């Protein structure tokens, strides 16, 4: 079971969903903070959902305030890099480039892609955490409330 | 100032992974500010893993109030750059102004301009997100460094980032001493002589500086008296008033009047003004660092860069502060030889100077990065009216062929050359061009009060371009020189290059500085008129110059370190300054041209101090 978890994780890295920053987070996890990574991930998805919502609204308005979009995306990128969400980060970067270029079309397209990657990562991570909980014999197996 | 958490807190007994028997880094009190909850959570975890005591905060305003409430409650601040309520740089500014804590900036934005902005605003470090725990493990060093520097500051009455090589308190005495007998070539003496300028420039200033220190210390270490909270708005009002009055001329009373805030006392303003000046000074110090940074970027090109930057600072400072030429010369020498020495000089300087120095980096490197910062606004108060042609394109000009440069002021060219050694060949040629044009221009100067900072690389087009009052004084000496030695002109101007020479030949450097100081001082004292200066230079200096010049040329050609140093420093008085006769006591216009030639044992100087030309 533990091996399975390791495999799942490895595949996340191999497929480029995660980068080494995620390992950093796992290193921070210890007995005192057994669920640290999952807590962070939960927080990330909660907060990024808010950001996505903001950007959605801004885009729907039709008038492209690129500065504002860029600012939102900057934050998005900051938190994405912090948890090692590699693919999402890439999309964030691209989005910001489109913002700077004033390319509304590119922004819209990239944002769709970003949301997709974001959702995929969420699913995959949830799966991973779930497996980890099942596999973990220790108290790490408990989901934080 | 703040104790870096020695044995403080519950963690003190616990030794972290990275620490040894000394628990010190453990228990370091860190305030981390980030509006991104995810980042904040991770940072907090990382910092705790480092055994620091962490306070987290998701808004800059809250962080500021926390800091104000508990001024001695933190050792270091880590702040995000982009935050909705208050820009990280703003927070940085306030922290620098009010608590003088080391601040680390962080951002996912890794563009050079933003990083540079962080550094120029006084951040001790800039971390790119994602922040790694390895980076956080070492942040305690900033606390230690800061503390050490503060100690130095208090000893030397200067506030700046790097430590000085010399010992502290006795420096001023030594300076005085040296002024009378300057036969000592020791590097320390150089630095002290550099300070001398400041010391000399005005006693009043010195006292003021001392007071500043005192206040600063008091403020940071003990908070007995009720304090006015300098809110962002209030501070902006304050800055606006200071800018309006001119940084150098702003006095608490006038600022108070301008601000017109009920309840605010003159003392409040005075205290804040002092801190603000310290803050500006610090920025000046930062700029120096910038120079160094740039230097590192250009690695392999010239070691002289670093010294030069320091040197520029000094000169800029000198110019701004009306330091005597001799001090400039010394500064230059020291700066060239040893970047570290520059600091002491810097510290005494007032904001204005620091501003100048700040600007310098831009000029030298021609990067737009530095520009656009707040510092630019600082120039407000500074009288800067250089003719566009003189200063324009200072940075770019350096690279241009000499023929292009003729329009540039001599000084500027010199500055340029000094600032960027790489360009040296070009600059040399540039120098040649100087004499003819500049000289003419410069003469008119006599009538008009002008400050000239040639040596300061900082002749930022912006900064100086605005001042109508600036003229080029330096030309006088040059003229003479040039007349005498047209061929040698190039060499003379090469002085900037000395930095190289200095680096390679420290001994020579020391000698230079000493000699420079000597000559300059004498001349200054003697010369009060431009004509006077001219005469001096002709009568006394010329013969030696020629000789030295030749030598210089040879040396230069030989590929050896440039031996000669020539510095021209013209101080820029505030526009309103009218008294020129009192060079030392007031901000006057002074232009000092120093020439040094660096063959050991042989020195030539042309030091001109154009003190006040009554307009």
Automatic annotation (TrEMBL), chain A:
**What biological processes does GO assign it?**
cytokinin-activated signaling pathway; phosphorelay signal transduction system
Q: Which GO terms describe its molecular function?
A: histidine phosphotransfer kinase activity; protein histidine kinase binding
Q: What cellular component terms from Gene Ontology apply here?
A: cytosol; nucleus
Q: Where is the HPt domain?
A: 33-135
Please classify the protein's predominant subcellular localization into one broad category: cytoplasm
Cell inner membrane keyword on record = no
Which residues are annotated with the PTM Phosphohistidine? Answer: 74
| Pfam families per record | Hpt
Which sequence ranges form a coiled-coil region, renumbered to this chain? none
Q: What is known of its domains?
A: Histidine-containing phosphotransfer domain (HPt) contains an active histidine that mediates the phosphotransfer.
* Function, as annotated: Functions as a two-component phosphorelay mediators between cytokinin sensor histidine kinases and response regulators (B-type ARRs). Plays an important role in propagating cytokinin signal transduction.
What protein name is recorded for this chain?
Histidine-containing phosphotransfer protein
TrEMBL record, chain B:
Q: Would the keyword Phosphoprotein turn up in this protein's UniProt record?
A: yes
Query: Which Pfam families does the entry link to?
Result: Myb_DNA-binding, Response_reg
- What NCBIfam families does the annotation carry? myb_SHAQKYF (TIGR01557)
Q: Which SMART domains does this entry report, sorted A to Z? A: REC
Composition bias, Low complexity = 154-164
InterPro entries for the chain: ARR-like, CheY-like_superfamily, Homeodomain-like_sf, Myb_dom, Myb_dom_plants, Response_reg_B-typ_pln, SANT/Myb, Sig_transdc_resp-reg_receiver
For this record, the Gene Ontology CC terms, alphabetical, are: nucleus
> Which UniProt keyword terms apply here?
Activator, Cytokinin signaling pathway, DNA-binding, Nucleus, Phosphoprotein, Transcription, Transcription regulation, Two-component regulatory system
User: Basic and acidic residues: which segments have biased composition?
Assistant: 170-181
Q: Which GO terms describe its biological process?
A: cytokinin-activated signaling pathway; phosphorelay signal transduction system
Q: Which family is this sequence assigned to? A: Belongs to the ARR family. Type-B subfamily.
**Chain segments carrying region Disordered:** 148-224
Protein name according to UniProt: Two-component response regulator
Describe the function of this protein. Transcriptional activator that binds specific DNA sequence.
Q: Which organism is it from?
A: Microthlaspi erraticum
Q: Which residues form the HTH myb-type domain?
A: 224-281
Cite a single GO MF annotation.
Answer: DNA-binding transcription factor activity
**Mind giving the lineage of the organism this protein is from?**
Eukaryota, Viridiplantae, Streptophyta, Embryophyta, Tracheophyta
Compositional bias (Acidic residues):
209-218
Q: Give the 4-aspartylphosphate positions (modified residues).
A: 80
Domain Response regulatory, first and last residues per copy: 29-144
Question: What highest taxon heads this organism's lineage?
Answer: Eukaryota
Task: Tell me the compartments it is located in.
Answer: Nucleus
